[in-house]
């Protein structure tokens, strides 16, 4: 009867940790056998308790003696991979950056079958489309809706961005800088994803007949303070009302600079007349089709995500109560904790 000399405590602890971490039952079985031998059990007892042959127990012990814990690890099942998987994954990432039509195909979007066809052509392989489909997540690829964009470049983009950056750098109590923009509030709710029971799609009741309301907002570039006005019309009067509100709050300011988009109401004759009479206002127009320059766009996104998306308000008055409550509590933005505010706090 073979008896193994007990292992040191540190070595036994290492085996125990490996047992706790391993997800392979065969690996755990081998580790358990060695641990039992390490704690003084003989090979016959280990063989009986684990229902393993004595030759297997001895073989596992030899593996551990020669290579340590690494010698007991399970090998990957099946034959060794013959396909250059890493190279194929890298090629998949490169292919999705291209349009299939650039490579001579008729389709405007990639499909699993088309990717497989191109991969097999490039690697002279015979991979099945289901294999490529299984590898796509490993390549970091997902099936996602594309976003439309315009290939119109503003020839004065660098100049406009530089002026905005200079104004932001000089922002202080006497020369505040604001991000200004307007947003549409629809009574018909914007539809968005939500948690629900698997297999059940949530239903959001809509009023049927849509109504609209408009907000003009200004976000202080440093303090995050938010000011806003509302109207039933999205016109020059709404923008001028926003300017008037800023003028009242910053009477002592030497200048008030606004970063805003190129919407028509910002350049109307009525606005030009108002600006001629109120010299302290300076308008810096952002480059065309560059909404990310205007930080208040994130505030509007938060407004929709918090209030208008999937809302269940039956009339515009009820919806505007939530909108105004959000706008009153959102300062300073970001960082006001608006996501967790309850309706009664409005």
TrEMBL record:
Keyword Transmembrane listed: yes
Segments forming a coiled coil: none
Gene Ontology MF term list: nucleic acid binding
Transmembrane segments: 31-52
Domain Tc1-like transposase DDE positions: 177-319
One family name in Pfam for this protein: DDE_3
Name of the molecule in the record: IS630 family transposase
Organism: Thalassomonas viridans
